[in-house]
Amino acid sequence: MSLDKATVARIARLARISVPEEDLQPLAEELSGIFTWIEQLNEVDTDGVVPMTSVVGHALHHREDVVTDGNRQDAVLGNAPESADGYFVVPKVVE
Amino acid sequence: MSGVIEGATGPWEMVIGLEVHAQVTSKSKLFSGAATAFGAEPNTQVSLVDAAMPGMLPVINKVCVEQAVRTGLGLKAQINLHSVFDRKNYFYPDLPQGYQISQFLQPVVGAGTLVLDMEDGASREIGITRLHLEQDAGKSVHDMHPDHTYVDLNRSGVALMEIVSEPDLRSPEEAGAYIRKMRSILRYLGTCDGNMEEGSMRADVNVSVRRPGDDYGTRCEIKNVNSIRFVEQAIEVEAQRQVDILEDGGAIHQETRLFDSRKMETRAMRSKEEAHDYRYFPDPDLLPLEFEQAWVDEIAASLPELPDDRKRRFVDELGLSPYDAGVLVAEKEVADYFETVATGRDAKVAANWVTGDLFGALNKADLEIVTSPVTAADLGALIDLIADDTISGRIAKEVFDDMFKTGRAPGDIVEEKGLRQVTDSGAIEAIVDAVLQANQDKVAEYRGGKDKLLGFFVGQVMKQSQGKANPKIVNDLLKKKLGSPGD
Amino acid sequence: MSAPLTSFTLAEARDKLAAREVSAQELTDAHIEAIASAGALNAFVVDTADRARADAARSDERLGKGDGGMLEGIPVAIKDLFCTEDIASTAGSRILAGFRPPYEATVTANLWREGAVMLGKTNMDEFAMGSSNETSYYGPVCNPWRATGDNRDLVPGGSSGGSAAAVAGELCLGATGTDTGGSIRQPAAFTGIVGLKPTYGRCSRWGTVAFASSLDQAGPMTRTVQDSAIMLGAMAGHDQKDSTSVDVAVPDYEAALERSVKGLRIGIPTEYRIDGTPQEIADLWDQGIAWLKEAGAEIVEVSLPHTKYALPAYYIVAPAEASSNLARYDGVRYGFREDRDDLTEMYEATRAVGFGSEVKRRVLIGTYVLSAGYYDAYYLRAQKVRTLIADDFKKAWDSVDALLTPTTPGAAFGIGEKSDDPVAMYLNDILTVPANMAGLPAISVPAGLSAQGLPLGLQVVGRAFDEETVLQLGRALERAAAFDHRPTPWWRDQA
Q1: Residue range of the domain that includes C166
Q2: Who among B52, B151, B284 is closest to C321 (CB)?
Q3: CATH number at residue C87
Q4: Within this chain, do residues B206 and B256 fall inside the same structural domain, yes or no?
Q5: Torsions phi, psi for C129 (to 5 deg)
Q6: Which residue of B has its CA nearest to C348?
Q7: Looking at the structure, do residues B307 and B290 belong to the same domain, yes or no?
Q8: pTM (two decimals)
């Protein structure tokens, strides 16, 4: 499978990672190489096979509806690069 | 607000679908143990899981699942014993994980119906496509600083039920009725408080237009409309916008829009075409959600009587009109209040008092029925006092006003103020004679043909008796003594 | 001079501490000193000497009273993927530089509850993505081993390279690692130590920085199989905070060790003979077969037909999950932020600068395989192949109790030697990845030296939750191999 520059740019935007223009082509080639290797999976006959949903065989564990957490604003904000008045602060979003 | 827009080139029909996001009534969040109560200081109802710290993992709240099943049953929907949580991936500051845990291909609830009660008493079935559970996002505040957005994660992770309707609605009015009915059902079930001002219920509105008989047109989604009035206005405005484009020969682009209630227009959100690629995949931190039919049956057995069934009972068994019944069942608290008043009494009289006098007084005082100064028991007692002729209907209104102001029982007010109806014919006769004696000129006019003066005489007698004379006796005596007009 | 205290096994140290022949403080001080003179290995990103001394003092008090947990006074190292309360936890990445978690991972909390002493956080491939510990923001780790007559720096393997080097270099008595595609077993093989990946769900993932949620599993890295059993007993256990954690009782793993392997059926999977693998790997495998046969085990040829597809399927599933798990590293709530005036630019710059190139590569791969139009062809298909791989193992268990294979297709290579070709690097995990895809327990045990004098490992894979049989067979191999080679401590007191 060959990826082109435009695809890499689109994926990078989806992943919110900026890739300089001059790196797009080399990256496209590198990723194409990896995908070519991955393509051998097409040899496998997967008709009627159920995709694995979990290796674990048991049921989803439930919690009781009790408040057991929260009230730790300091811990929540403690590592924030920027915070003010109890809020996280980020550059403005334009709607 | 009908659903048809008359364009220059002919009529256009509106096609509307609603996605209601209803916050689940629960103490703690869907996948974390932080509290869900509204109005707390920022970031104080946030666990490390909600803050998406490295290594944090979700654990599901069983009550939230129960509430979703309960809601599905209330919507007569298919309950799926096996469903899957998927990650919906996108970036936004109030979405700390960088994905929302939701349900994509296999939701917990499938197809159901909601019955619309229209103003004219007709009803229509609207299809429900599905209901699924998902996490709510936090809040981004844009107006606290010119260059910055402030983020509060208190709401992040609260359980939401997303309830999707089929595109069966055909007018803004129907959309409003749908939301009202949905809200009513959720409140009856106790699964969501339906408080749109606080944001515990929001709607995304899908609008398209078409020529009657054509296939569906391209739709636009108007996000996060937070009042019924805005929903109706947004539909009106958006449908018109689309018609204008189509009549001009243009095409509708499928896009997400916001409703600006001040400018009365919708506008496109900043281009998010890549945001449509949510890259859904089953959340590997969770297992499929599975439960037994027996558990579903237990929940079904515990459901309260729902609005549609209650309305049917009020009409069939209590003899109310569908309109009155509809008004009374819209809010469960009102229906409960009414039934207490109506039990053992004339249901129609009870309905009139509740929807007339009580609602009037509550609205004026800006109160709800749960904070009514007049209890259901007391209102019932008032009705009894009229029924056994202790007081007249008119005096009852006075007594009611006093009850509303003071919260006291009607019997006490009647005794204290001496408002018992006078039914002693002899006493009334004396007053009648006195009034006729004092108004002989009018008596002559009446006898001369001015029959409308009867009201004047009745009024005078009532005034002399401080309103306590039994009106029927007054009327009979006056007619007897005055004779026929024109005698 | 290396104090002999650092050359004990964990079990020996435990016994000596209990007998009060040595104090926890002496033992800890010896290790602190060893770490201080091992800077050249770059095995540690954070050393917590003060905390270690405080832990040791507390342990001595307990031991003095005859009290103490399973690991009382035992100095251990923690892979920097585990969040340790108030102590820097970076996952080998710049994007978590300075992050101090206000919480403790369940696995490490279990260790502290059992009285272990924390020496520090070990270096690792960034976000556990790598097989050589060359992708760390904090620099590569050097393998304590060098090829005979060669002073080139070699990789210790990855991603748990720092932990492997620390254990092999006698800087700690045991270390925690994590294994998603082989990240405990492969570095264990490269450094001549024992590395165990438990069954998926055996150890809690709560508080462990997530790479690929359906594959990640914490495990012990130690110098002997007995040490591994002891450490696993402390680390394992159900955790209600982790929905994928399994509620199965933790048995006494140590007690199972000396059971005879007589009558156990050992599967030799045909498909693990890979073209192009050095002959010495095949020879070592044959040697392992002979050892187990001699110990009374029955050898059976088995077929796991989908083996070769495990690695390409892994390189769809793991990056897909990682692309989503790493979305939270956005500069908003913790870690590194690259300031910009616009939010989107802030995200894109933060992640471009904060992530290294291997992480970026995998996030892009993962984003692509989940994206509209490609999900069915890649992710869904890979998950189906995964079912087939798991079924292969299930069928094998009808006729055998465990499998024996080599751990890696070769010995440790030079730093920088393979970092230009991603796929060549990925092929390091070709023999370890199938066990992750099926969620099965597997151990690597040092079995011999390569022609160049570098360690080689043998791997045992077992049934789900049958760590006991896996450890038992590991012990049998260890006994037979009598691997008593140690690396020459070339790194002492070199900057």
Answers
A1: 1-495
A2: B284
A3: 3.90.1300.10
A4: yes
A5: -100, 95
A6: B91
A7: no
A8: 0.92
B97 shares its domain with B237: yes
Residue B392 covered by a domain: yes
Please, is A7 exposed, middle or buried when counting C-beta atoms within 10 Å of its C-beta (0-12, 13-18, 19+)?
middle
**Domains in chain C, number:** 1
Write out C226-276 in H/E/C secondary structure.
HHHHHHHHHHCCCCCCCCCCCCCCCCCHHHHCCCCCCCCEEEEEHHHCCCC
Contact B27 A58 (CB under 8 A): no
B284: nearest CB among C206, C213, C343: C213
Whether residues B390 and B459 fall in one domain = no
Rounded to 10 deg, the angle between the B471-482 and B440-447 helix axes is: 70
Residue A50 within any structural domain of the chain = no
Look at chain B and report how many structural domains it folds into. Answer: 3
**Interface mutation vs chain A, best among C384, C429, C437, C463, most A CBs within 10 Å:** C384
In this predicted complex, what is the ipTM? Answer: 0.96
Residues in chain A, overall count: 95
pLDDT for position A95: 53
Mean pLDDT of B376-386: 94
Residue B487 domain-assigned (yes or no): no
> Which of B296, B313, B339 delimits the end of a domain?
B296
Residue pairs between chains A and C whose CB atoms are closer than 8 Å: 158
Q: Is A71 on the interface with B (CB under 8 A)?
A: yes
What residues make up the domain containing B335? 303-417
| Count of domains observed in chain A | 1
Q: Which residue, B227, B262, B296, sits at the end of a domain? A: B296
Select from B307, B257, B327 the least CA-distant residue to B115. Answer: B307
pLDDT at C2: 45
Note whether residue A95 is domain-resident: no
Determine, for residues C341 and A91 on separate chains, whether the beta-carbon distance falls below 8 Å: yes
Chain C contact present for B91, CB below 8 A: yes
User: Hunting for tokens 């003095």 — which residue is that?
Assistant: C64
What's the rounded Cα separation, in Å, for the pair C402 and B256? 56
Asked if residue A26 is part of any domain, the answer here is yes
**Residue C320: per-residue pLDDT:** 98
Q: Is B284 close to C214, i.e. CB distance below 8 A?
A: yes
With CA atoms as reference, the chain B residue closest to A89 would be B150
C92-130 tens-digit pLDDT: 999 999 999 999 999 999 999 999 999 999 999 999 999
**Span B416-462, pLDDT tens digits:** 888 887 777 788 888 888 888 898 898 888 888 888 888 898 899 88
Same-domain pairing of B92 and B206: yes
- Specify the 3-state DSSP secondary structure of A90: strand
Residues of C with a catalytic annotation lie at 79, 159, 183
Q: Are residues B266 and B393 in the same domain?
A: no
* Average of per-residue pLDDT across B164-185: 96
Beta strands in B186-299 (DSSP E): 201-210, 220-225, 256-260, 265-268, 281-282, 289-290
- How far is residue B388's CA from residue B411's CA, in Å, rounded to a whole number? 13
Which tokens is B435 given? 């009034």
pLDDT by 10-residue block (mean), chain C, 495 residues: 79 96 97 96 97 98 95 98 98 97 98 98 98 96 97 97 98 98 98 98 98 98 98 98 96 94 97 91 97 97 97 97 98 96 96 97 97 93 97 98 97 91 88 97 98 98 98 98 94 74
Q: Is the residue at B14 inside a domain?
A: yes
What range does the domain containing A34 cover? 5-43
Chain C: residue nearest B276 by CA? C372
Q: Is residue B257 part of a domain?
A: yes
CB contact under 8 A, C365 and A31: yes
A-chain CB neighbours of B60 within 8 Å are 60-63
Residue B265 burial by Cβ neighbours in a 10 Å radius (0-12, 13-18, 19+): middle
Whether residue B255 is found in the same domain as residue B362:
no
